[in-house]
Amino acid sequence: MSKQQTEPGTSRSVRFVRLPEVMARTGLSRSTIYVMVAAGRFPKPVPLGARAVGWIESELDDWLRDRIAKRRHVEGTGTGRGLATRAKR
Predict the structure, then answer these.
(1) What are phi and psi of 50, to 5 degrees?
(2) Separation between Cα atoms, residue 89 and residue 72, nearest integer Å
(3) Cβ atoms 74, 38 nearer than 8 A
(4) Is the pLDDT of residue 80 over 80?
(5) Distance CA 22, CA 7 (A)
(6) Does residue 5 surpass a pLDDT of 80?
(7) Any residues with CB less than 8 A from the CB of 59 and at least 6 apart, and which?
(8) Distance between CA 60 and CA 31 in Å, rounded?
C-alpha cells in the first residue's frame, strides 16, 4: 500500500511506499532494511502517523539505480566477483 502527496513548493507528487513494497522491490528483509537505515546506507523512512512510516519512492528509486550503477562500475573494472567473472575463465 502506498500514499501520494504533493511535494511542498512544487506541483510534483510524492509517493510514499510502505515496508512490504520496499521489501518486494529491493529483495531485502525488514531487519536488513532497518540495519542499513541505521548505518546510513539506505533511505530513511518518513513518519506518516503515530505508528506508520513510508519511504519516498523517488529516494528508493535513486538508491536502486545507484546499486545498479555500482555493480556495473565494478564489472567494468574487472574486479567484480561471481558467476560473470567465473564464466570468463
Answers:
(1) -60, -35
(2) 19
(3) no
(4) no
(5) 20
(6) no
(7) 43
(8) 17
Q: Give the DSSP H/E element, type plus range, for residue 53.
A: strand 52-56
Closest CA to 3 of 37, 48, 43, 45: 48
What residue ranges do the domains of the chain occupy? 2-80
Side chain identity, residue 50: A
State the residue for C-alpha cell 528508493. Answer: 60
Per-residue pLDDT tens over the stretch 23-42: 999 999 999 999 999 999 99
Q: Give the mean pLDDT of the chain.
A: 85
Given a cut of 80, whether residue 77 has pLDDT beyond it is no
Type of residue numbered 44: K
